[in-house]
Design brief:
The longest helix has 25 residues. The strands form four sheets. The protein has a seven-stranded mixed sheet, sandwiched between helices. The chain is globular, with a radius of gyration of 23 Å. The N terminus is likely disordered. It has a single domain, classed as Alkaline Phosphatase, subunit A (3-Layer(aba) Sandwich). The protein starts with a strand and ends in an 8-residue tail after the last helix. Helix 2 packs across helix 10, helix 9 packs across helix 10 and helix 13 runs parallel beside helix 14. With 467 residues, it is of the alpha/beta class.
C-alpha cells in the first residue's frame, strides 16, 4: 500500500509531516516497506538467486486467435480448411506464416512456433483461466504465482512485479475496451487478491488500495497516478522534508515519486519509435464494431511499447491484452474474412516493432515474448466466413528470453485440427515460462513458498525443444 496523506500532525508549510512523507515507501510486500526491502537487498550476500534476471511479456489474444491464420496456414489442406488469405514465406526454410504477418516472417529465426499446443477446452472463461494459470490446479494466473515467489514489487525500482495492460492503460479514449476477459486472465485463484497484476487502468486491488490525497483520496486511473506523483515530487523537491532520512528511505522516495510515473509515460519515447509501433490506423468498420463485441486493435502498438518500458523499469511479468479475436462470423461477431485484414496487420506491426526494439536495446535475451490466447479456431471455415472455438489446437509462439529460437515445435495433422504426434500441454507452457523467470532448483529448497506452487512446478516439464 502506497500512502501519502495531506493531513495530520506536525505539518510543514507544504502540508506534510516527515512521518507521512516516508510512508511513500510502504508498498505492501509481506509487511516490509519498500525502504526496508531496498536495505535488505543491499545487505544480501552475493550468490545463487531464486529470481533470474529475466522478464516475460505475455501477449494474450483475447477471444482466441485462429492458429491457422496466424502461424500454421496449412496450405496443403482443402480450401475450406487452409488459411483464408494464404501464406507468406518466412526466414526459416519451408516454414510459412499467415499472409498478414510479413514483418514477423522476416524475424522467424528469432521465434519458436508451437504447432501442437492442445488443452481441449473450448469455452472462453474456463479456457482463459486454464491457459493463464498454466493448468495449475489452484487456477492462479502465472503472473500472480511469480509475484508470490518474487514479491509484489521490484526491490530495485519499486515497480510492481506483475502488470496487465489493457487498451485503457495507454489512453482515455480506450476506456471500457478489453475488460471482458480481464478477470479471467488475472484470476488469483487461491492466492490473496493483493497478488493480482497491477492494472494501470484502475481495475486491480493494488491500484484501488493506493491512496494519494493530493488532491483526491483514491487512485483509480493512470492519469491521476501520473499527475499526482509528478505534483507531489515538485512540491517536495527543494525542501528539507527528507533531511535525516537514511539512504534507503531517500531511494524509496526517488523510486516512487519518479520511477513509476516515468515508466508509464510514453511521451518520453522518440516520435520515430512511437511511429514504428503505431497501430492507430487499424480499425474495424464502425458498423461492425457497433453490432459486435469486437474492438479495433488500434491501441496495441502503444500497449507493446508500454510493455517494453515496464520491463526496463524492472517489471518482470507483463500481460498485454489484445482484443477482438473471437471471429465466429455470426451476426454478433467479426469473422475471419473481415477481422483478420485488420487484426492481423496490427499484430504484425506491433510485435515486429517490439522484437526489433528489444534487439536494438540488447534486451532480446532477457525478455521472453509469449503469444497465445485461450484456444484456437475450428479447422473448417463456416458459411459466414468465421471459425468457432477450438481447444484441440491452439495458437502459441515464443521469442527471445535466451531460449532456443528459429524452430517449429511439433506439427498439426493434415487439416490443422489436432496435433500429430507430440503434444505440448499447458503444464509444459507453465514450466517453460516459470523456468525462464525462476531458478527451479533454488525454488525446491525455498522455505516460504506455498507447497502447491512448488509441487506443480516440480511435476511440470518445460517444452522439450525450448529447455
Amino acid at each position: 500500500m502506497f500512502t501519502i496523506y495531506g493531513s495530520g500532525l506536525n505539518k510543514t508549510c507544504e502540508g506534510y509531516s516527515r512521518r507521512e512523507l516516508l510512508q511513500v515507501g510502504t508498498l505492501g510486500i509481506g509487511g516490509l516497506s519498500l525502504s526496508s526491502l531496498l536495505s535488505a537487498e543491499a545487505r544480501s550476500a552475493s550468490g545463487a538467486s531464486l529470481i533470474k534476471d529475466k522478464a516475460v511479456v505475455l501477449l494474450n489474444l483475447q477471444g482466441g486467435a485462429s492458429h491457422i491464420e496466424t502461424f500454421d496456414p496449412k496450405m496443403t489442406a482443402p480450401a475450406e480448411y487452409r488459411a483464408m488469405f494464404g501464406d507468406v514465406k518466412t526466414k526459416l526454410p519451408g516454414v510459412t506464416f499467415g499472409s498478414h504477418f510479413p514483418g514477423l516472417a522476416t524475424l522467424a529465426d528469432r521465434m519458436a512456433i508451437v504447432r501442437c499446443f492442445q488443452h481441449g477446452i473450448s469455452n472462453h472463461e474456463p479456457a482463459a483461466i486454464h491457459v493463464m494459470a498454466g493448468g495449475n490446479p489452484s487456477n492462479t494466473n502465472m503472473a500472480s504465482v511469480f509475484a508470490r515467489i518474487a514479491g509484489t514489487n521490484s526491490p530495485r525500482t519499486g515497480m510492481p512485479n506483475s502488470t496487465i495492460l489493457t487498451p485503457p492503460a495507454v489512453g482515455d479514449e480506450y476506456q471500457g475496451i478489453g475488460r471482458r476477459f480481464v478477470g479471467f486472465i488475472s484470476d488469483t485463484g487461491t492466492l490473496p487478491p493483493a497478488y493480482r497484476p497491477l492494472d494501470p487502468s484502475g481495475g486491480s486491488e493494488l491500484m484501488q488500495n493506493m491512496e494519494l490525497r493530493i488532491p483526491q483520496n483514491r487512485l483509480d486511473d493512470r492519469r491521476t497516478l501520473l499527475a499526482g506523483l509528478d505534483s507531489f515530487k515538485r512540491k517536495v523537491d527543494g525542501t528539507d522534508l527528507l533531511r535525516g532520512a537514511d539512504q534507503f528511505e531517500q531511494q524509496a522516495f526517488d523510486v516512487l515519486a519518479g520511477g513509476i510515473s516515468s515508466a508509464f509515460d510514453l511521451g518520453k519515447e522518440p516520435q520515430k519509435l512511437i511511429d514504428r509501433y503505431d497501430t492507430s490506423k487499424f480499425r474495424l468498420p464502425p458498423k461492425l464494431q457497433k453490432k459486435s463485441r469486437a474492438a479495433s486493435p488500434n491501441s496495441l502498438g502503444k500497449q507493446m511499447l508500454l510493455a517494453r518500458r515496464l520491463v526496463e523499469a524492472d517489471c518482470r511479468f507483463v500481460t498485454v491484452a489484445s482484443v477482438g479475436w473471437d471471429m465466429h462470423g455470426n451476426p454478433n461477431n467479426v469473422s475471419i474474412s473481415n477481422g483478420m485484414p485488420v487484426l492481423g496487420p496490427a499484430l504484425d506491426k506491433a510485435v515486429t516493432a517490439f522484437l526489433q526494439d528489444l534487439e536494438d536495446r540488447g534486451l532480446s535475451e532477457k525478455v521472453l515474448l509469449v503469444i497465445t490466447g485461450e484456444f484456437g479456431r475450428t479447422p473448417q471455415i463456416s458459411e459466414t466466413g468465421g471459425r468457432g472455438h477450438w481447444g484441440d489446437l491452439c495458437t502459441l509462439a515464443f521469442a527471445g528470453g535466451g531460449l532456443p529460437m528459429g524452430q517449429v515445435v511439433g506439427r498439426s495433422d493434415r487439416l490443422a485440427a489436432a496435433p500429430e504426434g507430440e503434444v505440448v500441454s499447458t503444464a509444459n507452457v507453465y514450466a517453460t515460462i516459470m523456468g525462464t523467470l525462476i531458478d527451479l532448483a533454488e525454488l525446491r529448497v525455498a522455505s516460504d513458498i506455498p507447497t502447491d506452487i512448488v509441487e506443480y512446478l516440480n511435476a511440470s516439464e518445460p517444452i522439450r525443444q525450448l529447455a
